[in-house]
Write a structure and sequence with these properties.
Two copies of one chain form a homodimer. Helices cover 44% and strands 16% of the residues of chain A. With 483 residues, chain A is of the alpha/beta class. In chain A, strand 8 and strand 9 (148-149) form a beta hairpin. In chain A, helix 6 packs parallel to helix 7. The relative contact order of chain A is 0.08.
Amino acid sequence: MIKSIKESPLYRIANARSMAFFGASNNIASMGTHLLMTVLAGGFKGKIYPVHRKENRVQNLKAYVHVADLPEAPDLAVIVLPTSVVNQALEDCGRKGIKQAVVVSGGFKEVGDQGAELEGALKEIAALYDMKILGPNCLGVANPHRNINTTFVPNEGTPGFVGLSSQSGSFVTQMFEYLSGFGLGFSTAFSVGNEAVLDIVDCMEYLGKCPHTKVIALYIEGIRRGRAFMEAARAIVPHKPIVAYYVGGSKAGKAAGLSHTGAMAGPDELYDGMFRQTGIIRAGSVEEMFDFCWVLGALPTPEGNRVVIQTHSGGPGAAAADACGRAGLALSTLSQETLEKLGPFVPSTGSVGNPVDLTFTKDYHSFFSNIPQILLAEENADILMVYLMSPQSVVERVLKGMGVSDEVVLEQGRIIYESNAEQFSQHLKRQQKPIVGYTFHRPGAQIMNEVIKRGVPVFQGAERAARATAALVAYAKVLNRET
Amino acid sequence: MIKSIKESPLYRIANARSMAFFGASNNIASMGTHLLMTVLAGGFKGKIYPVHRKENRVQNLKAYVHVADLPEAPDLAVIVLPTSVVNQALEDCGRKGIKQAVVVSGGFKEVGDQGAELEGALKEIAALYDMKILGPNCLGVANPHRNINTTFVPNEGTPGFVGLSSQSGSFVTQMFEYLSGFGLGFSTAFSVGNEAVLDIVDCMEYLGKCPHTKVIALYIEGIRRGRAFMEAARAIVPHKPIVAYYVGGSKAGKAAGLSHTGAMAGPDELYDGMFRQTGIIRAGSVEEMFDFCWVLGALPTPEGNRVVIQTHSGGPGAAAADACGRAGLALSTLSQETLEKLGPFVPSTGSVGNPVDLTFTKDYHSFFSNIPQILLAEENADILMVYLMSPQSVVERVLKGMGVSDEVVLEQGRIIYESNAEQFSQHLKRQQKPIVGYTFHRPGAQIMNEVIKRGVPVFQGAERAARATAALVAYAKVLNRET
């Protein structure tokens, strides 16, 4: 177990100050070129040394015929070469004194016996030169806090709090856009590939010590070092939640994982047991993994599992109640005091049970301020779940009807949404109770964006909101078990 | 059972040629005004007669002091008045000879004994004048094929093939935006409210005969006429799939539904039995209900449950295999013939198992044309599931790298996406096998839009894609059982 982040073998990979680049050229069709272009587009501040046999300049950078010619031994070598020449390049890096490498090239253990032999040789080189290698058959690392991104996809999002250690590179690159749609981003994300030298456990330990990481996500096809994994998880979970999606449990997932990274999947029960014993929260899909990360990273842990639902209309309230029931959450019984306080704010056609149903109230101030305040003070409720609905077309129509000109309607709308969201989030800050939103608005709807920006997760549909809330409750239980 | 759509008591509600409007005014803060504005904004072609005690004109339409003054008995009365005066207005409509009404006003059975009494009186008026009433406590009807929308939210989407009969008005209005995000839309959607006269079964029968409706969605809090429901479902299912989300099965959902529309929910097993016996496909949430409608309305039914997965990269392939396994789908074993045909198209780092993994191929033509063609011809596969990934930023970078100017990059990108999607959809048309896409792109990503536009459903994440595919397989089984 590492004691500080600087002890991690991944430290100078995720925080490289300079890079040698193998396999990038001026040919836009090559994968290596794309990776280098991503590094450049990401605004990496350090020196980059492309190594190329023929070109003098690669992507407007001075290129070197041989790594031995470099003026220094850079922190990291990024290697995107044909399989057959990878080991030679690593050997050269070792001689130069480069201590860290990301090997993107595939064609190793995952393709069969011949590849496995090459991978064996790669490990020998790593041992000989004490070289920390991520991969092969990986996409490396994205650390937006340091403008580092060795993948081929530019990171659209802002630096965030989700740490990822993944046995699939796609769940790094494809998630840049996906997460930024929710206003989320990676703290640091690792694609571990075949794990010839560094593995998912090393990355998890790094993320455990990473100050930007509030929650750790693991995409697992198979764990090689079971004991080390459990030891690391046990040390991290009391301070930082871990969410895992294990794909190898089903027969189909197992077979697919094997051909992907050559990982050996174990029986589902084995993994389920490991997760339960260490307090790792298990997700049933990639989407769910990041949903869980969202609430776990953004919200305080609740005291219990009692939810109060606030809604504009009956159907979404009933659907949320049903989803909470299925997810193992309880609905709070509201106290007499709360019912009395709510009275003046609920129209005669509304309902002061739980869900609290405001039936299409047009009093947005109460909806975003008075009512959440009352419900968060309810001693029988641990969590507030709120249905967010504010059709832009209707808001714009009201403004136009009030004589507001077309030009200022959008601006006025924004001000309304901002002020609603601001009132709402004030309660989150004051109370140590989690607020979870759900909606059927499209991602990107103004009211959602404004609320999300202020730290309240908003899910599409009650089912996802309830499942994520249940994950938050599960983590709270793990923490209580620890003490 | 009705024999044609014109026999339905809902026909002149969903296809009204003229309306009397009660409760709309020139006050933008009133709900009735919003409903009328939505009707107008929707481009309703028929005559509208606002009834208002004081105003001469309402929203630029000639208004009438009393419904008796109208120059004709319009097809439909839309009533958005205070609860206490609703029955008087209905009585007046009856005397005028109006045979259809939508009562939006709430405050009836759902609020307790006094409201139940008012609702009893409403039913008597309906019986006396042989008046077909939708509601009370509902949002009426949206039939975009006839520019009819009596709800307070404008319908952003285009007319579509999903018919909805819903015990929640929100699942009409909130779904306009939601469905249009997937390129979907309603054929006709009914909000049934308290079902004093017309109920969810009547609406289901209407949709069964509606030529625009390819699939029927039911949001159910409680069925009052169990036998009629089953009879209608049995008659419809062999010709048109029905998907139901029943919210009343859990204790929490049941309590919430009761306060919403006064519906009496029954035990979950009872409903589950009804659904199974009649061949209705059951969904676990509103989102899932519309996911199921998408595949059922857009795709041919498969011969069996054997899926072949085509992917760019290992992780999404493994996640799809896992999701298929959990959803009860099987993975095809590819025949020798298929493996041989695939050979030339799969890079050495790829995998020709199932999932078929093209590992970041840049050969988009094969990905969208040759490979799907080969996989659809595989006799061991009933369904093709494809991972769609085409980061816009990378495509734009390639184009810029090829010397394309910034201005034409977007246009060129669109052409590429269009041609890929076009090739892809040609296979769907030629083969009678369903193709289901999944992605982690945000809704609205170009490649998704182009593919969706051509009739291939694309889901966010493998889990939703697999669950929807399983619903398609379940419907195919129902059809086989029938014959």
